[in-house]
Structure to design on (364 residues):
């Protein structure tokens, strides 16, 4: 059996929506974009949502909208997809890494304060794998030192922290809709905030620096072509209309894995603490001799992946900042054992059984 690492949950309603856009004449900056933004803003519980062509683009716009630039520092985690740190580099700011909590795999809030300097302008927690970071402590520190809080919620649409939606807790947040995310627009992202001035800036900068009401060839500031097209937005509209169904299916798949794998002494299951409602992006376990297990699974058709490789050990970062092994020992230890198993909304019981049985063979 071949079980892919991930697969989008696309059905006839999504196909119908895309074909309806294709049958019209508006393929960009149209009603589907506005509808998608309204749906996400309403779901997350914020006033403003700005759709963009990727989560990475969204993070870049957030950094610029907050005026973070050359010489500034932003505290973040080294255990994430590289875009959460690269977004600072786009503006010649510096990501300052803080090691992670070995249980939640999020930024360790007890280690943040010691990294704050006069150059620090913001804290950028990543809700890793859909698990919200400890936002109460982060917000308290941000208030104490007058720092911005940027939520990288790219993996956490639908997650809740103390009954508040991920992405709605800081000054501004970003979601992503790549095909392996909870919902997908093919490629795409969304900036969310309650601050109108930040939303307006992001909306302008995504559209080549234009401002609403001005001419197409009038540009008020430096901008980018970070727009989301109508085809992607129409896909997002239907996905948001189905989001409860999709998240429930992902929750069920995660529970089936956990039920089967809790008997495996060598497997450390994903942690979900109190006051957390998990929106499952991936299902990541920790195992000994991970690389050997990974090879065994792949050889038998089980799609799996290491999640994540530490950002500070990426060749680019070791060269630019002189990072090296030992800088962030918890991150490095965790990253050496993490294994993402096949995970999707429509993962079947047969597929889960095969993955679990093959994993048992690999461990033994």
């Amino acid at each position: 059996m071949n079980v892919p690492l991930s697969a989008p949950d696309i059905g006839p309603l999504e196909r119908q929506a895309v074909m309806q856009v294709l049958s019209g004449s508006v393929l960009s900056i149209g009603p589907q974009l506005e509808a998608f933004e309204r749906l996400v803003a309403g779901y997350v519980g914020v006033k403003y949502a700005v759709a963009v062509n990727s989560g990475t683009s969204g993070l870049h716009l957030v950094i610029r909208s907050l005026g973070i630039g050359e010489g500034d520092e932003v505290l973040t985690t080294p255990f994430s997809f590289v875009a959460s740190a690269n977004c600072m580099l786009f503006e010649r700011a510096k990501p300052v890494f803080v090691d992670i909590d070995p249980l939640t795999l999020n930024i360790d809030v007890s280690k943040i304060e010691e990294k704050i300097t006069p150059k620090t302008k913001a804290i950028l927690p990543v809700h890793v794998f859909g698990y919200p970071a400890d936002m109460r402590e982060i917000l308290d520190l941000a208030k104490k030192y007058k720092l911005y809080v940027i939520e990288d919620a790219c993996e956490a649409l639908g997650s809740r922290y103390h009954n508040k939606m991920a992405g709605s807790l800081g000054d501004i947040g970003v979601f992503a809709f790549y095909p392996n995310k909870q919902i997908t627009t093919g490629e795409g992202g969304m900036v969310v905030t309650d601050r109108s001035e930040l939303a307006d800036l992001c909306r302008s900068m995504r559209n080549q620096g234009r401002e609403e009401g001005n001419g197409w060839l009038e540009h008020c500031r430096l901008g980018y072509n970070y727009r989301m097209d109508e085809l992607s937005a129409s896909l997002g509209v239907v996905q948001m209309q189905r989001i409860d169904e999709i998240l429930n299916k992902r929750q069920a798949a995660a529970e089936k894995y956990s039920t089967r794998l809790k008997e495996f002494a060598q497997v450390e299951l994903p942690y979900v603490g109190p006051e957390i409602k998990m929106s499952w992006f991936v299902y990541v376990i920790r195992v000994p001799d991970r690389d050997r297990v990974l090879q065994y699974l792949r050889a038998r058709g089980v799609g799996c992946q290491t999640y994540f490789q530490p950002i500070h050990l990426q060749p680019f970062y070791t060269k630019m900042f002189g990072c090296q092994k030992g800088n962030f020992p918890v991150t490095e230890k965790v990253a050496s054992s993490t294994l993402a198993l096949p995970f999707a909304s429509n993962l079947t019981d047969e597929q889960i059984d095969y993955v679990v049985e093959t994993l048992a063979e690999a461990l033994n």
Summary: The mean pLDDT is 98. The two ends are 20 Å apart (CA to CA).
